[in-house]
Amino acid sequence: MRVRLRDLAEGLGLSVMAVSKALHDAPDIGAATKARVRAEAEKRGYWPNQAARSLRSKQSGLIGLLVPDLASEEAAGIAGGLLRAGEAARISVMVAASGEKKGGEAAQVKAMMGRGSEAIFILPKITTEHRSLALEAVMQAGLPVIFFQRYPADVSPGRARVSWVVRDMAHAAQLVLDHVWKQGHRSVAYLGGHPAERSHAEHCKAVREGAAQMGMELVGEATMAGLTPEDGEREMERILQGKSQPTAVICGNDAVASGAARAVLQAGLHLPGDLSIVGLGDGELARHGPVALTTVAFGNLGKAGFELWMASRDGGEMKPRTVGCELIDRGSTAEAGGGGKPSPTPSR
Questions:
Q1: How many Å apart are CA 342 and CA 272, to the nearest integer?
Q2: What are the DSSP calls for 186-211, one per residue?
Q3: Who's near 127: CB < 8 A, 6+ residues apart?
Q4: Pick from 241, 332, 335, 336: which is nearest to 289 by CA?
Q5: Burial of 278 (0-12, 13-18, 19+ CB in 10 A)
Q6: Does residue 343 sit in helix, strand or coil?
Q7: How many CB atoms are located within 10 Å of the residue 222 CB?
Q8: Is this model's pTM higher than 0.85 or not?
Q9: What stretch of H or E contains 333?
């Protein structure tokens, strides 16, 4: 049988109010009494009835996070940041994956709301669809919803209880362009991410415009390679077969950069001696791929999203946030014209 607050109070000879205050570390309860209450609660296996508490406060202490795939590095990073922030604030996080089934996002969101989530956080699938059934479900329930990285096309600033957290892709592009410019690179190639992903499109646009303003040649224009190392390797092989060769390659994510690096090494070239490569995201592949990648690191989106929601939990405005970034130089770039140490060619 579950131990109730009343059971603790009777066993300790205290009032229910005194026991409750002791468990919540109230200042008007002595340290000795608090110690007694906590020891008894631990001994008897007591834990708070969150359902009853949420009925009184209208705050369940539970939020939901929906991601496309729990195994992806992007989803894992966001979930980790949100979970750590929630733990510090004593907020529980329910995490689910939408999967490939059509309507999966809306179904999972409805399940989270049915279990009492007071806010929904969504890392959406990359899609060309403008309508979000998940958003419609949350809006109908009147709950706050915060999108990570990308958001539906019909969402605009000021829409009630809807917000988002994104990366500063324009600044990320400029950091990389400034970096390779200072190293003497004037001919660069660009291998971007997914063309339907809003942030990838913003990064591509910023690189294209920034290179033009700085007088840099963009070899082969700007290619949206994809999301995987295989995509980067394929596109890099194509570039290496061209007549005009870049001295540096700017990539839309670390996975593409890692694949591009592999293609360069397989061609018998050296990194960064013959060609410099820069990634984006500072993920595992940047640190532990075939070459330690110079890349751009961002603040954690999950943590920023949680802070945005907490600031508005009592009715404040949910203003969109843009997460800043910094360049991490790990040596996959060097001065144009043969600077830097050669890298070994990996075996397949």
A1: 6
A2: -EEEEEE--TT-HHHHHHHHHHHHHH
A3: 196
A4: 332
A5: buried
A6: coil
A7: 19
A8: no
A9: none
pLDDT digits (tens, 9 = 90+) for 220-278: 878 888 888 999 999 999 999 988 899 999 999 999 999 999 999 999 999 999 999 99
- DSSP-derived 3-state class of residue 93: strand
**Residue 216 and residue 245 in contact, taking contact as beta carbons nearer than 8 Å:** no
User: Do residues 101 and 155 both lie within one domain?
Assistant: yes
Neighbour tally for 190: CB within 10 Å = 26
Distances in whole angstroms, Cα of residue 224 to Cα of each of 33, 191, 227, 302: 64, 6, 9, 26
Rounded to whole angstroms, the Cα distance separating 83 from 72 reads 16
Tokens 């063309």 appear where? 195
Integer Cα distance of 122 and 112 in angstroms? 12
Range of the domain at 259: 169-298
Q: Which residues pair with 250 in a beta bridge?
A: 190, 278
Query: Rounded to 5 degrees, what are φ and ψ at 66?
Result: -115, 125
Q: Is 59's pLDDT higher than 50?
A: yes
Residue 126 sits in a domain of what CATH number?
A: 3.40.50.2300
- Mean pLDDT of all residues in the chain? 85
β-bridge partners, 92: 62
Considering its fold, how many domains does the chain have in total? Answer: 3
In angstroms, the CA 161 to CA 120 distance is 11
Residue 211 lies in a domain: yes
Closest CA to 108 of 118, 120, 93: 120
